[in-house]
Amino acid sequence: MRLVFSIVVGVVLGLTVHLLSVLGLPRIASGDAYSRLAAITPLNAVMQLPLSDANNSPIPFMDPAFAQAICRYDLKAGPLKLKVPVSPTYTSLSFYTRNNTAYYAINDRSAGRKVIELDLMTEAQHAARPGDPEITAADRLIIDAPTPTGLIVMKALAAEPSLMAQALASLQAASCTIDTTSASAPGGRKAGTLAD
Prior knowledge:
Elements: H1 2-28, H2 33-38, E1 46-48, E2 66-74, E3 80-85, E4 91-97, E5 102-107, H3 108-111, E6 115-122, H4 123-128, E7 141-145, E8 149-157, H5 164-172, E9 175-178
Parallel strand pairs: 6-7
Antiparallel strand pairs: 1-2, 2-8, 3-6, 3-9, 4-5, 4-8
């Protein structure tokens, strides 16, 4: 009986340590995607990543059939406006927090337009935004980011090698900028900043 109890305690303890390390490692790792990309990407701007190379890749497991671009954002200065023209075959956007947790994704088929346009902001910025009765939810896609910093990964598919130039061109035309038009609310109060 003592042997069975020792085995059960050992298994439970091992599972607990394994679970804690798997969940905690992304938060304490110094070489995460955000840290690696912070050294080579500007803040609140789109930067095209080099095509996938087996010897040198800024993001692991990059698919060579996709052109990729990154927007490393910081919403402390205000909401972000993102515009990405869709490529002829397929375009997708994935949103990640500073700790590499995916929280939103959209592609050209679900957007249903030739340009994916959206506003990214924190919940506090969204709540402070003045309402406009003439703008409906169908007119503007607003995404609430769970953290003020993070990454947007943009991908454009080149179904054949000859289509890679078109995929690259669609991402080169993308923009990711702080929205200065909604920076101030009525009464001179800043609407798009986080409270310190």
